[in-house]
Specification:
With 601 residues, the chain is α+β, with helices and mostly antiparallel strands. The protein is 55% helix and 19% strand. Among the domains are: 238 residues, Multidrug efflux transporter AcrB transmembrane fold, CATH 1.20.1640; 105 residues, Alpha-Beta Plaits, CATH 3.30.70.1430; 65 residues, no CATH class. Strands 5, 6, 13, 14 and 15 form a five-stranded antiparallel sheet that branches. It has a four-stranded antiparallel sheet with strand order 2-3-1-4. A two-stranded antiparallel ribbon has the order 7-12.
């Protein structure tokens, strides 16, 4: 579990608690096993000796337990001997099953959904108004939409429906401005046949988005789990705004054509109308003015200048002088205002500068020192997955990028965290196997036996794939998290079996007898250990108290992988041990010991 603490990205931070708690729990259990458990065993044994005459119920239970264990060992030994007589066939069948599991993982039978979050009973309806809208107009339009949202909710389905203006909460950050309106819909806890959050939104989406009220409408469903951006989040970058806007429109068209996309938009917020003035330097020079003087006159007409400071009632007051505005019916009219020239005569602002109207940017965003606009969209994961959708965008962009030579794309959102986590999983998996190998090599004093134990990991992989097929859970980052955790759990059964076989070899048994004896002696503890682990995670794995898309894959990976690998380990490990230990140094020492005993008799 230790390598999982090093997992980067949002997932690593969110799920750090699992390996940390498990590691601390295992360390504490060592204290119990080494210092406390022996005293308990001594106490139980002395209690048995002092209470020889037990109750009939305890006697019956003990006899049943003894009989069951004996029968289990007997049947297992028969099956093991049957498999040993057909070693090649047994290993071939398991190899074929492994290949089938790999094929199933690569086929459409198993869905890929890297981020699977448990939905929260909460969603937002966003209302983005035109740039000239006031906050009162935004609130009025938002309340009209909220009234329609309430009509689509069943009685008792919603706890509250609240409208606000001036702020919009997103997956990444809150946005502030008079043009933003948002409706927060909090649903009641689900019971009986109540609709899920996704169904509620799907039932009202088309009608709400088609409303003939001001503003663009979109939805944001809140999910549990770690924070993450939208499945599609592409930053378009360029130094020229015209090219940037055109490239963004091209990306919007590409994303719109991808199956499963919805709530498409970008973060380029149009600003209010503006008057752009450009100074005619030659005209200013001929008039005998300098640019600084002209700028000051312009500032007096627009913002004015502070000429004095007063205090009234302890409050500071500023006296500002500026042009009287009530006589201006249009902001452009001030261009006709006269300007006195130093040499006598006069001119106008319009003679010294050109003017044009336009629309400014509400927000100027930069990414890595270049202007950027982020295109975002949600994705219906039943129709498409994050990686495939982003790959389709990249392929279509390669065909269109010649029209925008100064623009490039930067993928972020979920794909960023997916790539970061996916890049770390193989390294963490190998690190975990490396730690396991070093510990086992030191324990068994062998470079080869740890490899036999690590074969158990491959057997666990078969169980994980089978579990995904049966449970219909998708392959997510949490599934991979469970697989990495499973690596350290699945090897326990093979460790105790090989350790028992090595002990019998050192006592002089032959390889075949040592293998069968060790397997027979360890089958009950192995099954008990596996059963207790599976029992603890079973309800979470099958969703007994409610299915979790976040924690369910972790538990399902461990339950199915551990259960399947244990069943195969009880047969595969003895077969491999018998094959590869025949000519080992330990087997040679065992034969020498038997020969010495025979000579002594």
């Amino acid at each position: 579990f230790l390598p999982l603490m090093l997992l980067p990205g949002i997932i690593g931070k969110f799920m750090f608690v699992i390996p940390f708690v498990v590691t601390v729990g295992l360390l504490v259990s060592l204290i119990e096993a080494f210092w406390i458990l022996p005293s308990h065993v001594v106490g139980l044994r002395s209690g048995r000796e002092s209470n020889a005459a037990q109750s009939p119920v305890k006697t019956a239970l003990r006899r049943w337990r003894t009989s069951f264990s004996h029968q289990l060992r007997l049947e297992y030994t028969r099956l093991l001997i049957f498999a040993m007589r057909r070693t090649g066939l047994t290993l071939t069948v398991i190899g074929i099953v492994f290949v089938i599991a790999v094929g199933a993982l690569a086929s459409p039978l198993i869905r890929v959904q890297f981020f699977s979050f448990d939905p929260i009973r909460l969603f937002y309806v966003n209302v983005d108004m035109p740039p000239e809208s006031s906050i009162d107009e935004t609130l009025a339009a938002t309340e009209l939409v909220a009234a329609q949202v309430r009509k689509h909710l069943e009685p008792g389905e919603a706890r509250s429906v609240v409208s606000v203006a001036g702020v919009k909460f997103t997956d990444v950050e809150p946005l502030y401005g008079d043009v933003y309106g948002q409706i927060t819909v909090s649903l009641s806890p689900r019971r009986d046949e109540m609709r899920t959050t996704d169904v509620v939104v799907a039932d009202m989406r088309d009608e709400i988005e088609a409303l003939r009220t001001p503003g663009k409408k979109s939805f944001l469903i809140i999910s549990g789990g770690p924070p993450a951006g939208k499945p599609i989040a592409v930053k378009v970058r360029s130094d020229d705004y015209g090219e940037l806007r055109a490239a963004t429109n091209a990306i919007l068209d590409i994303v719109r054509d991808i199956p499963g996309t919805r709530d498409l938009g970008d973060d380029d917020v149009p600003g209010r109308a503006e008057l752009v003035l450009r100074m005619n330097v030659e005209a200013v020079r001929r008039a005998g003015l300098d640019p600084g003087t002209l700028n000051r006159l312009l500032r007096l007409h627009v913002d004015g200048e502070v000429v004095a400071e007063l205090r009234e009632g302890g409050e500071q007051m500023l006296v500002r002088v500026r042009r009287e505005r009530s006589s201006l019916s249009d902001p452009v009219d001030f261009l006709a205002d006269p300007i006195a020239l130093p040499g006598g005569g006069s001119t106008t602002f319009g003679a010294l500068m050109s003017a044009e109207t336009g629309r400014g940017s509400g927000i100027i965003r930069h990414h890595q020192l270049r202007r950027s606009i982020t295109v975002e969209a949600d994705l219906d994961l039943e129709q498409n997955d994050t990686v495939s959708a982003n790959q389709a965008i990249l392929e279509r962009w390669e065909q269109a990028r010649e029209r925008f030579p100064g623009a490039d794309l930067d993928f972020s959102g979920e794909l960023d965290d997916i790539n970061e986590s996916l890049g770390a999983f193989p390294a963490l998996f190998l690190m975990g196997l490396g730690f396991i190998y070093l510990i086992l090599a030191a324990q068994f004093r062998s470079y080869f036996q740890p490899f036999m134990i690590i074969v158990t990991v491959l057997l666990a992989f078969i169980g994980v794939v089978l579990g995904l097929l049966v449970s219909r859970l998708p392959v997510s980052l949490y599934t991979m998290y469970g697989v990495v955790a499973l690596t350290g759990i699945a090897v326990n059964a093979s460790i105790v079996m090989i350790d028992a076989a090595n002990t019998r070899l050192r006592e002089g048994m032959g390889v075949l007898h040592a293998t069968i004896y060790a397997a027979r002696r360890r089958v009950v503890p192995v099954i008990m250990t596996t059963s207790t682990t599976i029992a603890g995670l079973f309800s979470l794995a099958i969703g007994l108290g409610g299915q979790s898309l976040l924690w369910g894959p972790v538990a399902s990976s461990i339950v199915w992988g551990l259960g399947f690998s244990t069943g195969l380990t009880l047969f595969v490990i003895p077969l491999l041990y018998r094959i590869f230990m025949r000519e080992s140094n330990l087997a040679k020492e065992s034969r020498a010991l038997r020969a010495a005993r025979a000579a002594a008799h």
